[in-house]
């Protein structure tokens, strides 16, 4: 992103252990910001499921309002389309 001149503010970078509950908490924080992100990249598909749950809880529409990307391609990920 830096090479392409895209700035990623530190406020949008969060680290969470690989559990859905902790990821859901972090995602709720991000999605509750005054200017929430329009996309979240999760390190794992398991974390991406936590992001989807947070979005659902906050009535954030996926993919209309938020793109969610998981990285490790779990077998169950094909059902989250």
Write up what this structure looks like.
With 81 residues, the protein is an alpha+beta fold. The protein has one domain (10-80): Response regulator (Rossmann fold), CATH 3.40.50.2300. It has two helices and two strands, in the order αβαβ. The chain has helices at residues 20-31, 45-57, and strands at residues 39-42, 67-70. The protein has a two-stranded parallel sheet.
CA-atom Rg in angstroms: 12 Å
List the helices and strands in order.
HEHE
β-strand number = 2
Low-confidence stretches: none
Helix content: 25-40%
Task: Kindly provide the name of the CATH class.
Answer: Alpha Beta
Outline the biggest β-sheet: 2 strands, parallel
In CATH, the homologous superfamily goes by the name Response regulator
CATH topology category name: Rossmann fold
Q: What is the number of independent domains? A: 1
Structural class: alpha+beta
Adjacency order of strands in the biggest sheet: 1-2
Mean pLDDT: 88
Which architecture does the CATH hierarchy give at level 2? 3-Layer(aba) Sandwich
How much strand?
5-15%
- Separate helix tally: 2
What is the approximate shape? globular
End-to-end separation: 26 Å
Summarize the structure.
This protein is of the alpha+beta class. The protein is 31% helix and 10% strand.
Keywords:
2 helices, 81 residues, Rossmann fold, two-stranded parallel sheet
Q: What does the secondary structure layout of this molecule look like, with pairings?
A:
Blueprint: H1 20-31, E1 39-42, H2 45-57, E2 67-70
Parallel strand pairs: 1-2
Helix pairs in contact: 1-2
